[in-house]
Amino acid sequence: MAAIDYSEKIPNNVDLANERALQRALEHWQPRFLDWWRDMGPSDFARADVYLRAAVGVDAQGWAHYGTVKMPDYRWGIFLADAIPDRRIGFGDALGQPVWQQVPGEFRSQFRRLIVTQGDTEPASVEQQRRLGLTCPSLYDLRNLFQVNVEEGRHLWAMVYLLHAYFGRDGREEAEQLLERHSGDADKPRILGTFNEPIDDWLSFFCFTYFTDRDGKFQLKSLAESSFDPLARTCRFMLTEEAHHMFVGETGLGRVVKRTLEAMKEAGSDDPEAVRRRGAIDLPLLQRYLNFWFSSSLDLFGSEVSSNAASAFATGIKGRPDEATQYQDHVCSEATFELEQPDGRGGVTMEAVPMRNAMNEVLRSAYVRDCEIGVKRWNLQLQRAGVDFRLALPSARFRRGIGVWAGVPTDVAGKPIARDDFERRLPEWLPRAEDKAYVRGLMQRVVEPGKMAAWIAPPDRGINNLPLDYEYVRLS
Ligand SMILES: [Fe+2]
Ligand SMILES: [Fe+2]
User: Fold this and answer.
1) Ligand that lies nearest to the alpha carbon of residue 243, given by its number in the listed order
2) 3-state secondary structure at position 262
3) Handedness of CA 305, 308, 313, 317 (dihedral sign)
4) How far is the CA of 54 from the centre of ligand 1 (A)?
5) Within a 13 Å sphere around the CA of 370, how many CA atoms are in the beta-carbon half?
6) What's the CA-to-centroid distance between 280 and ligand 1, angstroms?
7) What is the mean pLDDT of each successive set of 10 residues along the chain, which is 476 residues long?
8) What is the pTM of this model?
9) In angstroms, what is the span from residue 123 Cα to ligand 1's centroid?
């Protein structure tokens, strides 16, 4: 089952050749996908030779094979992790029963919405990032951007396969619409807010891959627990690819910090102006970018109290990340969750809500803990350099657009404050027009093998043990 058949028009490990109708429907969608890639993907680089990894199998040996390809020739396909024999439902009211190989009729619309929402984010991010290649800080980074882009394209394939295979005509229509909505489009935007934010500089790209791809990780991890086995297997394989996207974000931001520390040392000063005169990114500016992308990504988890989340857990549709190893109680019919809420008078109250209704918040809290790991690492770099400044995640209450804290003015520590205070202090906390202009000014393309832009340090090592000055992208 692990081997992927590359002799097929659509590489796959789901025995597509023996499902003629499904195969025809997907082969009909394939040229539309390629049109979309040509129009909305990294179009200026269609003829470049890129050193990319591709899966040849879904086991540990097979999933990362490297070679040089032109992106439009990348073999997007359908790869599911191997089935777990006798897999049982791991949570909710049907705990212990066999998992489902088909979507139960009564859960059809819930599953369809989840799969469409996940599927929509994948091409959205490719659209958001399509112009970044023009200002890459190095060939190494350019290659990483393209690796992320082709894999997001494959994640779209993963969701489209499920829609075609299990949702009949509705699913095929949804698959069409996934190519019709576009990031930032006034008439047909992408479904989730963050995926309509433009990503036109590399600092935003690293923040996006650190914070927003990590939201993807947590969504995929909870869908990997689903009782609908084909969805679980699809997501399990997507997670192996997703890890690289977060690596790009974490190491990218770490390299920014490293270069900033060098500039501070050269200048003998931590004055942001002195850092900028050396073409690096000052730490307060970086902090404002972190504030923006973290708060924006938190909204992706939805409302703290959600009857949808409760029913998705109760019915076995969507679990918690690492359900089996991280939790004792897999039913949660009695448990409660202590939720912090604004009291409407400038304070905070605690309310016990049924655990099932708080599943979005459980997921968001796990996400926040995961986000802290990189911040700790960057702060260790600062500490080792003898610098007092520390980066920090803002409070999860700060600048929220969804949930109990939506529209409640707080400072970055989460303390409720007066609205006009909030408005006045926003330039302290979020990227200012001059920050964005400065960052934009830094975005000059560097494509000489081994060379780096002045605002970012080189990575510790190259891709797949190749030297740093390897020509990861050959531009034609
Ligand atoms: Fe993805
Ligand atoms: Fe991703």
Assistant:
1) 2
2) helix
3) negative
4) 15
5) 23
6) 30
7) 75 94 96 97 94 80 82 94 96 98 97 97 96 97 98 97 97 98 96 90 98 96 98 96 95 98 97 97 98 96 96 97 95 96 91 97 97 98 97 98 96 96 97 97 97 98 96 93
8) 0.96
9) 8
